[in-house]
Design brief:
Blueprint: H1 11-17, E1 24-27, E2 30-34, E3 37-39, H2 48-56, E4 61-68, H3 69-73, H4 77-81, E5 92-97, H5 101-113, E6 118-123, H6 128-131, H7 143-156, E7 161-166, H8 176-185, E8 190-194, H9 209-215, E9 224-227, H10 233-243, E10 247-250, H11 260-270, H12 279-296, H13 299-312, H14 323-331, H15 335-348
Parallel strand pairs: 3-4, 3-10, 4-5, 5-6, 6-7, 7-8, 8-9, 9-10
Antiparallel strand pairs: 1-2
């Protein structure tokens, strides 16, 4: 070939040759750094003690549990308690949900007095008691109302406002590409997208292709955060590299496994998988979670709250004949009994 002959590449071919260049992700004036990894908002999971633990392991930003706007403006004590944030967990977002425009705007103003860094709107929760009543992912069936609420919340506060939502209501209405532009026009500072429809709930595999389309839409200029089925450091990096999202949000992958953030951050920074710690090290982390939960609530309620983490942790997966021990863990009613069972596991199953 003549050295002067021009090489003609299509856009897609050219794009393949260029590595994705990552820059710091900013939400308003909040700089989250390059390729940030965030703890997703989860009801009955992301209380302050868990947020602080995930933060200590490297989460770049954390979210509160869901705050119901109607309960907040009625001054329901349990809901108001969700507004308490600690300096050590910043940057932190308070997430609100509801279906009334005025109530959502007023709730946002109340949340602002708690001094979070960000107000996030939940348009993604698929559970029946939320979406079935028209809030959360239920808003995906009423886009005009969703946009009214978003604009009202943006106008109500001085803090950056972000949104978390899904691809659409069902497979026949995957509207996220157009919806993302509409939400951006309302003035939001970032958008998080879970790669499932509401109808899917948490079944099947998350589809990131439409998340990638939103990110690569030249009309989008706000950060796009991907969410769904990121359960390892390798998957996290693959999602960044394949879809070019600005940030990634970890939800269920962190339950019973707050150390996932440390694993991910090391892999993103070095390209190497961190060697595993001793089994006792992981057991001690779970015990810290139990203790934090008990200190925050009381022994009975604290143990009930932490059972979800004990049931979901991957630490015990693959251990032969573990069923009876698992049942005992989930039935333990005192911290002493729970710790005794946890402490017996390494020797009982010859694990180091």
């Amino acid at each position: 070939m003549d050295s002067l002959t021009p090489i003609v590449l299509t856009y897609k071919e050219f794009d393949v040759l260029l590595p994705i260049i990552y820059t710091d992700m900013k939400i308003g004036s909040i700089d989250l750094g390059e390729r940030p990894v965030l703890l997703a908002p989860m009801e009955d999971v992301t209380d302050m003690s868990f947020r602080l633990m995930c933060k200590q392991f490297g989460a770049d930003m954390v979210y509160t549990e869901f705050v119901f706007s109607d309960a907040l403006i009625r001054h329901v004590n349990k809901t108001q308690q969700k507004l308490v944030v600690a300096e050590e967990e910043r940057p932190v977002a308070i997430q609100i949900y509801g279906k009334d425009v005025q109530a959502m705007a007023e709730a946002a103003r109340i949340c602002e007095t708690a001094k979070p860094d960000i107000i996030d709107i939940n348009f993604g929760c698929p559970v029946k008691r939320v979406a079935g009543k028209g809030a959360g992912a239920g808003m995906l069936k009423n886009i005009p109302l969703m946009l009214k609420i978003t604009k009202a919340v943006v106008d109500a506060v001085q803090l950056p406002v972000t949104v978390k939502t899904r691809l659409g209501w069902d497979v026949h209405s995957q509207i996220i590409v157009d919806l993302a532009e509409q939400l951006q026009d309302c003035g939001i500072a970032a958008l998080s997208i879970h790669g499932r429809t509401r109808s899917q709930m948490y079944t099947g595999e998350a589809d990131w292709t439409l998340i990638g389309e939103v990110k690569n839409n030249p009309r989008m200029h706000i950060p796009i955060i991907g969410n769904g089925d990121v359960t390892s450091a390798r998957i996290c990096k693959e999602r960044f590299d394949t879809y070019g999202v600005d940030g990634i949000m970890i939800g269920r992958g962190s339950i019973g496994r707050p150390w996932i953030f440390r694993e991910i951050k090391q892999y993103l920074e070095t390209g190497e998988i961190a060697p595993p710690e001793s089994f006792e090290w992981y057991i001690n982390i779970l015990k810290q979670q139990v203790l934090s939960s008990v200190l925050k609530l009381d022994e009975r309620r604290g143990i009930l709250h932490i059972r979800r983490h004990l049931a979901a942790t991957p630490l015990f997966k693959g251990i032969p004949d573990f069923k009876q021990t698992r049942i005992a863990l989930l039935r333990a009613e005192t911290m002493e009994k729970l710790f005794d069972i946890l402490d017996e596991i390494p020797e009982k199953y010859n694990i180091r």
